[in-house]
């Protein structure tokens, strides 16, 4: 605990999201760290600066554990500079990069070093890396773990890029046993390849045809297999981007039985519906897909009862030319890094959920998933990372105003609640009044 004499900044608001709820408070910051959460009307220590944000809410910086930065190799799709600016503008102060869509993929320690070299000096927020579990890299998993990745991602069905093949059940078991041997975490794109193969595949611009080609059953079967493997090996697993609400009872039941399984969903599954996707609008394409409104209601129930732990973006951009109007061939991925917070807050608000829930889903729980003990809450000893949000203010999404590289988004034209006024990283503003500071992000390793 820092001495009061070390306090450099008092960040004051009538609405600070503390672990005990949103309340008036003054956050005392000593250098890069939260020293204490003090009463609202506390005195200002000598040498400290007061930053009073009035009624704007002070949230812990968001932690987005599901981002495809694609850099190096597919840096025309995205990149560390642009992705981390979009993150900061969306109140995200920590992101974890997915191991695929960059070249090389993050499947060996050497590749991890290549990724870190691409990121160094170009990141506006803190960045960590997931490793990849692919068929031929079982012996690389422990070295990657030792090199500081936060866990390992695998696919159970084709990933969409040839350099990152999926694991069949036998290989899944082998990789999961290896990862469990050193206490690691496996995060899984859970769609069953056999269920996908037997689904009707009709190309073209109709969203209903695309939806039929990625049925809920594919997710449900994959989650069931994953639960069985995790139970057999007493492994720790995480379901990525859950879309099928039918899988919720499976996950909840497994957890009750002691299986170490967690799950995330994404802003697009929780705020957009299949019914409203226009024909040919492949900016809405992702896998698994955005489903029906009734499915979305059930996902919100899963959030409310804690079956879904986290809400993270799965920001997965590409160049405009790859978003052809044919849902079968267009690149799958939705760009939302900058918009996740307002999108979720808008819907949470409509459904009567408080800001505290949004903070838990988008900051505290993802930090816990990744073991980021210095992130995810405003309390003494944690990094002084903040998002300052005007919760009642609205804006209309204009793709041109977004900071990610290719200004395509499924949210274009939507009016959302929640304007991010500023973002702070380790006690210093990284974005305020629309202006970015010099990149001050750090490369994070597991256990940082
Ligand atoms: Zn993804």
TrEMBL record:
Pfam hit, one: Amidohydro_1
Top EC class of this enzyme: hydrolase
Gene Ontology terms for molecular function: allantoinase activity; cobalt ion binding; zinc ion binding
InterPro entries tied to this protein: Allantoinase (IPR017593), Amidohydro-rel (IPR006680), DHOase/Allantoinase_Hydrolase (IPR050138), Metal-dep_hydrolase_composite (IPR011059), Metal_Hydrolase (IPR032466)
Annotated GO CC locations: cytoplasm
Domain spans labelled Amidohydrolase-related: 58-412
Keywords of this entry: Hydrolase, Metal-binding, Purine metabolism, Zinc
EC code: 3.5.2.5
Cofactor requirement: Zn(2+)
Keyword Lipid metabolism attached: no
Pathway(s) served: Nitrogen metabolism; (S)-allantoin degradation; allantoate from (S)-allantoin: step 1/1
UniProt-listed GO biological process terms: allantoin catabolic process; purine nucleobase catabolic process
Signal peptide coordinates: none
Cross-referenced NCBIfam families: allantoinase (TIGR03178)
Subunit structure: Homotetramer.
UniProt similarity note: Belongs to the metallo-dependent hydrolases superfamily. Allantoinase family.
Name of this protein: allantoinase
Species: Streptomyces corynorhini
Classification lineage: Bacteria, Bacillati, Actinomycetota, Actinomycetes, Kitasatosporales
């Amino acid at each position: 605990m820092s001495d009061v004499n070390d306090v450099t900044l008092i960040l004051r608001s009538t609405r600070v999201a503390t672990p005990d709820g949103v309340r008036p408070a003054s956050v005392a910051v000593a250098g890069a760290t939260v020293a204490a959460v003090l009463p609202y009307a506390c005195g200002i220590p000598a040498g400290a600066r007061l930053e009073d944000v009035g009624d704007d809410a002070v949230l812990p910086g968001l932690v987005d554990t599901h981002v495809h930065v694609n850099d190096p190799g597919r840096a025309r799709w995205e990149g560390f500079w642009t992705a981390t600016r979009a993150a900061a503008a969306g109140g995200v102060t920590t992101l974890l990069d997915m191991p695929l869509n960059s070249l090389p993929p993050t499947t060996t320690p050497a590749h991890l070093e290549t990724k870190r070299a691409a990121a160094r000096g170009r990141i506006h927020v803190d960045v960590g890396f997931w490793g990849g579990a692919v068929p031929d890299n079982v012996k690389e998993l422990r070295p990657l773990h030792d090199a500081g990745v936060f866990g390992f991602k695998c696919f159970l069905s084709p990933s969409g890029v040839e350099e990152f093949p999926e694991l069949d059940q036998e290989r899944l078991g082998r990789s999961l046993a290896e990862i469990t041997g050193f206490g690691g975490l496996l995060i899984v794109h859970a769609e069953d390849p056999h269920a996908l193969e037997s689904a009707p595949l009709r190309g073209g611009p109709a969203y209903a045809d695309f939806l039929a080609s990625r049925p809920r059953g594919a997710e449900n079967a994959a989650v069931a297999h994953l639960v069985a493997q995790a139970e057999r090996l007493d492994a720790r697993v995480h379901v990525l981007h859950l879309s099928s609400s039918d899988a919720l009872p499976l996950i909840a039941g497994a957890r009750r039985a002691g299986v170490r399984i967690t799950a995330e969903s994404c802003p697009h599954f929780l705020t957009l519906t299949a019914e409203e996707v226009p024909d040919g609008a492949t900016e809405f394409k992702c896998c698994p897909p955005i489903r029906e409104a009734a499915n979305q209601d059930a996902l919100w129930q899963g959030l409310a009862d804690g079956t879904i732990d986290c809400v993270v973006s799965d920001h997965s951009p590409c160049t405009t030319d790859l978003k052809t109007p044919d849902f079968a061939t267009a690149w799958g991925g939705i760009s939302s890094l900058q918009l996740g917070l307002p999108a979720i807050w808008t819907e949470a608000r409509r459904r009567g959920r408080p800001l505290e829930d949004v903070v838990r889903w988008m900051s505290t729980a993802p930090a816990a998933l990744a073991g980021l003990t210095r992130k995810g809450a405003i309390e003494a000893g944690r990094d002084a990372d903040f998002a300052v949000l005007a919760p009642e203010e609205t804006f209309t999404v204009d793709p041109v105003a977004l900071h990610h590289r290719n200004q395509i988004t499924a949210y274009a034209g939507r009016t959302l609640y929640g304007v991010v006024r500023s973002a702070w990283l380790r006690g210093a503003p990284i974005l305020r009044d629309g202006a970015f500071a010099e990149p001050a992000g750090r490369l994070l390793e597991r256990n940082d």
